Amino acid sequence: MNVRQTELPGVLVLTPKIYRDDRGEFFETFNLRRMTDAGLPSVWTQDNFSFSRKNVLRGIHYQVQQPQGKLVRVTHGAVLDVAVDLRKSSATFGKYTAVELNAVNGEMLWIPVGFGHGFLVLSETAGFAYKVTDYYSPAGERTILWNDADLAIPWPVSAADVIMSDKDKQGVRLRDAEVFA
Questions:
Q1: Cα–Cα distance for residue pair 180/174, rounded to 1 Å
Q2: Which has the closest alpha carbon to 45: 69, 65, 61?
Q3: Strands 12-15 and 70-76
Q4: Mind telling me the catalytic residues?
Q5: What is the CATH number assigned to the segment(s) 2-176?
Q6: How far apart are the first and last CA of the chain?
Q7: Which band of pLDDT confidence, cut at 50, 70 and 90, is reported for residue 124?
Q8: Model confidence at 100, in pLDDT bands (50, 70, 90)?
């Protein structure tokens, strides 16, 4: 596995070794030893999966109670995956990193506690799997507005074409958000 640091300290891209032959392909989606060697946690509480169609945007989510670190990957299709630094004391507060994750390259993104997370489906459909370090806390969940001008994330979709939940449409601007110390 290759581990690459992104522009945001602590947010990592993990690229597995994929073995391909005429039968198909094989790669490890999780190996505790390799993950902890890369600095990821050794305790995970939950695995999640979502299936979405093109132009679905989920996020930008985070939890202020029971905050979650997330290890995310795409099982089929492709997404633009975004992490936003929400740690007020960080030199990169309010900055983002965007990585295309797809089923062909198998790359995964590690998003530590203190970051918001969202993704946009680029392919006709996408399967999105992720491990989290704490249980979901509905009372602690917060959402940053996907098109906050202060973040200036270049999502490759227009406001007219994006598909979002009502909850995500009600996200707040970063300047008004409850963030981490």
A1: 12
A2: 69
A3: unpaired
A4: 61, 130
A5: 2.60.120.10
A6: 32
A7: very high
A8: very high
Is 0.90 surpassed by the pTM of this model? yes
Per-residue pLDDT band at 149 (split at 50, 70, 90): very high
Strand 141-143 versus strand 46-53 pairing type: unpaired
How deeply is 55 buried, as exposed, middle or buried, from its count of CB atoms within 10 A (0-12, 13-18, 19+)?
Answer: middle
**Would the CA dihedral through 75, 57, 50, 110 be positive or negative?**
positive
Nearest to 169 by CA among 143, 151, 150, 149: 143
Tokens standing for 180?
């981490």
Tokens of 158: 């227009």
Per-residue tokens: 119: 């993704």
| 3-class DSSP assignment, residue 12 | strand
C-alpha dihedral (177, 56, 78, 4), degrees to nearest 10: 0
Residues 83-103, mean pLDDT to the nearest whole number: 98
**If you average pLDDT over residues 22-38, what whole number do you get?**
93
